[in-house]
Write a structure and sequence with these properties.
2 domains, 5-stranded antiparallel β-sheet, 28% helix
């Protein structure tokens, strides 16, 4: 049976693997020394996006009344925010919970609503009014790099990591007195370590934020890393 030496590319999430058919892999490395290598390239990427999470809680006599009251606040905010071209991924959620008194008797209901959206950090700094309805409280801020910025950095880091991997393979081959190397199996992975979320300590400043005033620390940066891991077969 004739085996193909063509490398197959497998895409799994953010990982890319270069895989040689198992039988061909055995022919390549079974009778020659093999070395496991890895190379990592990383850099800090500026966070140019922010995710704002808001919350509203309302007490009422019935579940329907609590849900209606919360929905009124969210609907008003959504109508206003939908007109803002800088805001994306606008999402909301409503839940109701019974409030128990003595003898486990329901005495009222609490409606809890959440509102989440994303926007560029620069747009948040320059907005004069976000038009968030009264009653909503800012629960946390989450800064992160945009997909465009991540892709731009990832391409550069991938080139750097692959070059380092190849250099290590060449050094290993030379160090062991071999003429060169061939690739066995290689996997490529990336990791985005985002900035920390700024929690409820900023909730008291929700009114300031609704008026477009900056209440959070600098957006900071996230560390993006690309690693190349694999096995090389040393030529005689």
């Amino acid at each position: 049976m004739k085996l193909s030496n063509t490398l197959r590319i497998a895409l799994l999430g953010t990982s890319v693997g270069l895989l040689v058919p198992s039988a061909a892999y055995a022919d390549l490395c079974e009778k020659t020394p093999a070395v496991n290598l890895n190379a990592i390239s990383s850099e800090d990427v500026d966070n140019d996006m922010v995710r704002l999470n808001w919350q509203v809680q309302i007490q009422a006599g019935t579940a329907n009344e609590a849900m209606t009251a919360v929905n009124t606040v969210l609907e008003k905010s959504i109508n206003n925010l939908s007109k803002n071209k800088d805001i994306t991924k606008l999402k909301n959620n409503i839940q109701t919970y019974p409030q128990y008194g003595k003898n486990n008797v329901i005495q009222g209901w609490q409606g809890v609503g959440s509102l989440t959206f994303e926007m560029p950090v620069q747009a948040l700094k320059t907005q004069k009014n976000l038009n968030v309805a009264d009653g909503l409280t800012l629960s946390n801020l989450d800064y992160f790099p945009s997909e465009a910025r991540i892709e731009q950095s990832r391409e550069k880091l991938l080139q750097s990591a692959m070059k380092e991997f190849q250099n290590k393979a060449s050094i290993a081959a030379k160090g062991f007195g071999k003429t060169g190397y061939t690739l066995g199996e290689v996997s490529i992975n990336d990791e985005n370590q985002g900035a920390p979320t700024y929690p409820r300590m900023y909730a008291a400043s929700a009114d300031m934020m609704s008026k477009g005033m900056e209440v959070a620390p600098a957006a900071g940066s996230s560390k993006l890393s690309v690693s190349v891991n694999g096995r090389v077969c040393l030529k005689p």
